Amino acid sequence: MGPNGAGKSTMINLISGLIPVERGEIIFDGTHIEGRSMDWVSRAGLVRTFQVAREWSKLTVLENVLAAAPAGQREAVWRAVFGRRAIAREEARLEERAHQLLTRLNLTAVIHEPAGRLSGGQKRLLEFARVAMVAPKLVLLDEPLAGVNPVLGDELGRAIQGLRDDGATVVLVEHNLGFVERNCETVIVMGTGQVIGEGSMRDLRSNSDVVDAYLGQGVS
Q1: Segment 1-16 mean pLDDT
Q2: Which of 4, 75, 89, 173 is the most buried (most CB within 10 A)?
Q3: Contacts of 182 (CB under 8 A, 6+ apart)
Q4: Cα torsion through 37, 40, 41, 47, rounded to 10
Q5: Distance of CA 142 to the CA centre of its chain
Q6: Residues facing 171 on adjacent strands
Q7: CA separation (Å) from 205 to 151, 171, 176, 209, 214?
Q8: How far apart are CA 105 and CA 129, in angstroms?
Q9: How far apart are CA 95 and CA 103, in angstroms?
């Protein structure tokens, strides 16, 4: 977390490969990923969301989730010698997983609706389902509460917990301090492109640099 302009979204953009790295190193799971494309980084198990939820508006909710399944799984099946039965089994497995995720996120009532008709909160939950379908190692969430009804805060918190239960590490950028406190074990505060505090929310409330940054007095 951190005030506007602290560099939070820039950090996510650099790590995910959206913008090029000019200097320094980014190491993920023991591998240098600086200079890699977004699709390469995603295939390595690091995925991200954006402040505005993105979906394929003309595809159904179910089709959106199925489209997020790693292509490598399907390609391996197509190359297998077992033919159509193996393909059918794999497609059935992916569809079952998609249904499980949509049930977990309370989207079964709209499963066959075009994704473009969903509310802002539903689109955000659909985004979580698509992320979970990838089975990532690390997820970067850029302000998941942006444009979402605050009532859905608890539901989004459960969605984040679902990603963690599936084995993913979650890095969250968020301005809602109450949401951060409820859902984050460790909080890192940025200011003017640098880390100015790290710890629990209780620890950070007594950190003078953090307090000054949020009061607009700059970083000492």
Answers
A1: 91
A2: 173
A3: 157
A4: 110
A5: 7
A6: 140
A7: 26, 20, 15, 10, 11
A8: 7
A9: 12
Whole-structure pTM value: 0.83
* Mean pLDDT value across residues 125-148: 91
Residue 154: predicted pLDDT: 86
- CA–CA gap between residue 161 and residue 164 (Å, rounded): 5
Residues 6+ apart with CB under 8 A from 20: 35
Task: Report the Cα 219 to chain-centroid distance in Å.
Answer: 29
**What beta strand segments (E) does 80-183 contain?**
138-142, 169-173
DSSP-derived 3-state class of residue 148: coil
Measured CA to CA, the distance from residue 149 to residue 56 in angstroms comes to: 22
Asked whether the CA dihedral 20, 24, 28, 32 is positive or negative, the reply is: positive
38-68 confidence digits (pLDDT tens): 989 998 999 998 877 788 889 999 999 998 8
Is pLDDT above 60 for 216?
Answer: no
Kind of pairing between the strands at 31-32 and 46-48: unpaired
